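Record format v2
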Amino acid sequence: MIRFALRRALGSLFIGLGSLTLLPACSSSSADQQTAQLPYIGEREVVPSPTGGPADTVYATIPTFHLTDQAGQPVTNATFKDKVYITDFFFATCPSICPKMQSELLRVYEKYKDNPRVVFLSHTIDPAHDSIPVLRDYAERLGVTDASRWHFATAPHDTVFALARAYMTGAQVDKEAPGGFTHTGAFALIDPNRHVRGIYDGLNKDEVDRLIKEIPVLLQEVSATSATATAKQP
Amino acid sequence: MRSWWLRGAAGLAVASVLAGCFSNRQNEGEKLYATHCASCHGEQGEGLRRLIPPLAGADYLRQQRAALPCLIRKGQQGPILVNGVTFNQVMPGHDDLTDSQITNILNFVQQQWGNQNQTYTIREVSELLDACHGSDGQ
């Protein structure tokens, strides 16, 4: 089923390439996105088929992880089975960009909080300070009362930073800003097969609007894929 | 005739330079707010839920007016009550701002988003900053 999904995605790869550059201009193709799939973002590898058939393209996947959320519950890859999720990195005492980011993510959350297929995951990058009670307080202060809809999760420091790299949200170059200013305010959109399907600047309202528009595109693809998979079952 | 024209031109030039000066001065608070404050307190001073206190319509700005210069200079830690809601976030201090920049930020905040609170002179802010040894005399 994964291979099938990947092959289907190949057809729309050209549309996807534009978004890889993370330029604001890529939101101009929103008309295409109604009928197209979202790009696969990150490293990809072309693997020759052992049977001599067409080569397979294998995309980078999010590694296996084990986190704990503000309710003290485990959060793993299985938590997001058959769902799409949006992720970011923050810390509770962050005085700079986090409040702005979280208020933008809150805007996305408000749109999708009644859709159980869309889940939110914020990782703390300061696990030493952000204990479970701190995360719970933070979530409640943001107005998030159901931890299963928006997880504020912690894990050992190394785990979190490895994940930040996998989600490509650790740091980002902004060519528009003087001196190629870097920041860490990105959101990533992940599909049920652990692939990153969108990266959005969480400090930029237009980029966050693009995320809000692209979530349904991914949901539709997921529905179509699982329907096809079901139909194929004997 | 010619000297009248010259004087007129010189007067216009001075006026336009001054206007530039004034408008920059007036906007300084707004610009500094956008750079140093808005990502937490919001572009409209709205704050963020129960996490970051609002500035728009905040009783705290009136009640704690004299303490605000030091609050910006030294930052803020521990619970504070704003409009009946207890907030508890760390606000960083600002050694990177001059007394006059703090004055401009405060005057912007005290007069923006419907706030109609008393403004400050630079001298007053410097004096208030002495309380926390935070005046840089500029």
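The helical segments of chain B are 2-36, 38-41, 59-63, 68-74, 99-111, 122-130.
Residues 19-24 of chain B have pLDDT under 50 and may be disordered.
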